[in-house]
Design brief:
Aspartate Aminotransferase, domain 1, 14 helices, Aspartate Aminotransferase, domain 2, binds 4'-deoxy-4'-aminopyridoxal-5'-phosphate, 4-stranded antiparallel beta sheet, 15 strands, 2 domains
């Protein structure tokens, strides 16, 4: 027997970035008895399974050899045309050529990190921030710096001041029904953020997977629609929350040079997004009324948000605060300053009572706030939400 030498360990960036704490929690909370407010799962009973199945059947019957063949990296023209029309109808003139289809919007984030971020570059994020975006930028070797935020989101003056100190390459933001807080950046702040980006030479990555899921209030225009930010904003979209996440269909709208760079990164990542899924989605958009479907889903999510708001005051200790989102899937709560509350430590007690949430600490890229937690209000029915909050109340009192 010759002596063997072990192969090398994974790259250092794997250990420094770490796995997603949410995926770890989901594993613990997978027992069916647990009422799980932790995952960010759209309500599966609301998927238009018949419509999606019909679209796949149609595409596979009509031209199976094409549907099952390799496709272009940029994406299927029929889908890009339909996405461009939907974007234009929402007051942002867009052509098919402005878009790159991605394998979920998560892929758009990693393509942007590959195409734009050099190791050591600074990336600005919201505080708190979508976890898998933190992971993606850290993987790319970025220095991730949180921008001060309040109940309305990014503070544009603080952003402006911070640019001088850090010289960031890009700002990543989820301005509408943010993950994890559910908050929405008001129109005047969007204009101010666009102005800062234009004046300071900053890219903006505007991630909008939840904007269509509005059940209250009026739509706020995209940052990408502001004149000064047009040449420097990348808008990300996704079918995950409005159609089905298993399709893994997202897209990015970016100025030409950066879009081409992302397409090169995508060639190296997966060549292209599955042809059959793209054609089925295009077929679905042609044959079904996605807007009517989304309106139905959003109305039900509004009912579920109300169920959660109705139970929170009894479930959380006096002095707790929480957001009241006008759409999307999440709300964000903060346990009171009085008392030694730590939502990470309290999670095991919650799971003993068969209810789960995500502790807020990992969503903070700098100093974590241990009193915060994220609750998803869309996966359970109102009755289950009420029961879950009763359990949470017992766990936090017990
Ligand atoms: N951005 C945000 C803010 C998200 O919350 C998510 C999913 N949780 C994604 C991007 C990724 O979504 P997908 O890849 O399914 O489009």
């Amino acid at each position: 027997m010759t002596a063997t030498v072990p192969p090398a360990s994974p790259a250092a960036r794997v250990a420094t970035t770490g796995g997603s704490p949410i995926r770890a929690i989901l594993a613990v909370t997978a027992r069916p008895e647990v009422i799980n407010f932790a995952g960010g799962l759209p309500a599966p009973e609301l998927f238009d399974t018949d419509g999606i199945a019909a679209a796949f059947a149609h595409v596979l019957a009509e031209n199976p050899r094409r549907a099952l063949q390799y496709s272009t990296t940029e994406g299927e023209p029929a889908l890009r045309e339909a996405l461009a029309a939907r974007t234009t109808a929402r007051s942002l003139p867009t052509t098919a050529d402005d878009l790159l289809v991605t394998t979920g919007s998560q892929q758009a984030l990693s393509l942007l990190a590959t195409a734009l971020v050099e190791p050591g570059d600074t990336v600005f994020v919201e505080n708190p921030c979508y976890l898998a975006a933190l992971q993606t930028f850290r993987f790319a070797g970025a220095r991730v710096v949180p921008v001060p935020c309040d109940a309305d989101g990014i503070d544009p003056d603080a952003l402006d001041a911070l640019v001088t100190a850090h010289r960031p390459k890009l700002l990543y933001t989820v301005p509408t029904f943010q993950n994890p807080t559910g908050r929405t950046l008001p129109a005047d702040r969007r204009a101010a953020v666009a102005e800062v980006a234009a004046r300071r030479g900053l890219w903006i990555v505007e991630d909008d997977p939840y904007g269509e899921l509005r059940f209250e209030g009026d739509r706020v225009p995209w940052i990408a629609a502001h004149e000064g930010a047009r040449d420097r904003t990348v808008l990300l979209g996704s079918f995950s929350k409005v159609m089905a996440p298993g399709l893994r269909l997202g897209w990015l709208r970016a100025p030409e040079e950066l879009r081409r760079a992302c397409a090169v990164a995508k060639q190296a990542a997966d060549l292209h997004t599955p042809t059959v899924n793209q054609l089925a989605a295009a077929r679905y958009l042609a044959d079904s009324d996605l807007d009517a479907h989304v309106a139905k889903v959003a109305a039900e999510y509004g009912t579920r948000r109300d169920a959660m708001l109705a139970g929170l005051a009894d479930a959380l200790p006096d002095g707790s605060t929480w957001t009241r989102p006008e759409g999307g899937m999440f709300l964000w709560a903060r346990l009171p300053d009085s008392g030694a509350y730590d939502s990470t430590a309290l999670l095991s007690k919650a799971v003993e009572h068969e209810v789960a949430y995500v502790p807020g600490a990992p969503f903070h890229s700098a100093e974590p706030d241990p009193r915060t937690l994220r609750l998803c209000f869309v996966t359970q029915t109102p009755r289950e939400i009420a029961e879950g909050l009763r359990r949470l109340g017992r766990a936090l009192r017990g």
